[in-house]
# Entry
Amino acid sequence: MSFVDKKEILKTFVTLRDPLWLKKESNNMNPKSHLIESLIGLGATMLIAAGLGWYMLNEPTRILSAQEDVLNIQLEEAMTLYAENCAVCHGLNGEGIGATPALNNPALVTMPFEEIQKTISRGRYQTAMPAWSLLDGGPLSDYQIDELVLLIQYGDWTETGDRVVNLGLAPLVPFTTEADPALLEQIGALPDGATLQTAIQIFASSCVSCHGADGVGTSIAPALNDTDTREKTVEDLTRTLSYGNTGTLMAGWSNILTPEEISALVTLIKRWEEVPTGTIPAPDVPIPTTAESIALGSQLYSANCSRCHGPEGQGTPRAPSINVQSFFVDKSDQVIEQIITLGVPGTAMPTWGDRMTEVEIQAIVGFIRQWEATAPEVATLTRPGGGGPPWRNNTTTTDTTLFGLLPLPSSSTNTTEASMTNGNPSISTHTSGGSQTSSLLDWRVLLMLGVLLSIAFTLISKGWSELRQRR
Ligand code: HEC
Ligand code: HEC
Ligand code: HEC
# Structure
């Protein structure tokens, strides 16, 4: 390939375009265009300098906000730890239950960090407060205990209460309950009835919070009235009751109960089949709800129940109304939960307990209970699609479908559901969505773009003026 003069090519290129206006301009505007270039260069330099200065000024705030991010992550994790381990004794919002002290106590905020850390790690001897540190046989690492201290000193207890409810760990049975007097008297007539009576009263005051009414178990502790537990040896049961099971919520009771009382409880567990259901009753504690749990309940109801019970629970020819005063009056949340979990055998009402988690069923109950305030005295059934001319189909059907299609509630419930399955409620999902958008508009990115644009502009205008000079 022979040598080709670059200048020649450029010349032809420019001549081909024949920029008449440029020729005129280049004759009398050459010095001026240099001025423009210098100004642009100066501008770009100043922009970079200003950006760097701003960045340096912002550095301390940036570090602070990074520290804040870490604290927020730790508080997030601590809320879940609290829900799983502490809410059962210290309450939904750290308010304390019965004799267990409150943790939302201002005195704890000013208490030295190490002191609270020590209480949680080692527990309080001769009280129900167990040791939580791995070193003392507990289930939590030092890091997790530090997170819990942070929660106690900096956390938001309302948000923590919502977390407990969303994870389905809200204590639904109060800390203590009263045995049914009539049934208790009946038990007194059994052989060695007095021992059973004593044990039932201790169970009602000390064990029901975890092991549930009639010992049926809860989401945090196993059933004690089942054959598996009954078949354990007296020695095994006595050991568990006296010393607890290391690393679980089951604390040892030998410091609090006498050997006779522990032996009575073991007798109760062994003979539970003789104790009538309802002796240690489930009190009517409303299932707590949050905005998230209602949204989840609403979504699950539309997807699974509305085709039989109607979009607003009015009932259809297929299933009765569950949005009517007579339904709400005599059914506690626990009863509704049980109907949904077990279904109604011999009818079209399916068993939902094997398809949904306890959290999901409780969310539906919370959603249905909301209707009580506006529930009619007499139900008017809805006609599901197909029954008669379209104008006879109840308009509420279309209404609710429309609402179901609105992107806002459905997308927020999706987040709720997805996040609930991995036990990490949606606050994090929401914020990550927000920070994604804001990271695109981050000032550092904008500054880089500005610098790149001005460099490109300077280069282009420089190139142009070069071309003009060479002609
Ligand atoms: C089995 C019930 C139970 C559980 C579970 C429990 N605690 Fe306690 N906690 C207690 C009792 C009872 C006390 C009061 C001890 C006393 O009388 O000094 C207490 C006291 C405390 C105190 C001291 C409060 C004060 O005012 O001095 C802290 C802090 C504490 N618990 C944190 C926790 C944390 C964090 C968890 C979860 C990891 C937890 N507890 C789980 C029963 C419990
Ligand atoms: C703070 C919650 C809590 C309280 C209060 C509690 N337990 Fe437990 N209990 C548990 C947990 C959790 C387990 C399961 C431990 C495990 O996984 O090994 C358990 C296990 C047991 C077991 C062994 C069950 C088995 O199948 O092996 C017995 C027996 C028992 N508890 C009796 C009692 C009695 C009696 C009381 C009242 C004096 C009581 N518990 C109070 C949480 C509790
Ligand atoms: C295939 C149709 C069908 C579906 C789907 C269905 N149900 Fe039912 N449900 C029924 C029928 C039929 C009954 C009446 C049973 C009876 O005769 O006692 C009933 C009864 C009930 C009752 C008791 C009403 C009363 O007055 O005692 C409740 C509560 C209930 N259903 C809730 C639900 C919930 C919540 C869902 C969704 C998770 C659901 N049902 C899904 C058919 C259905």
Remarks:
- The CA atoms of residues 1 and 340 lie 86 Å apart.
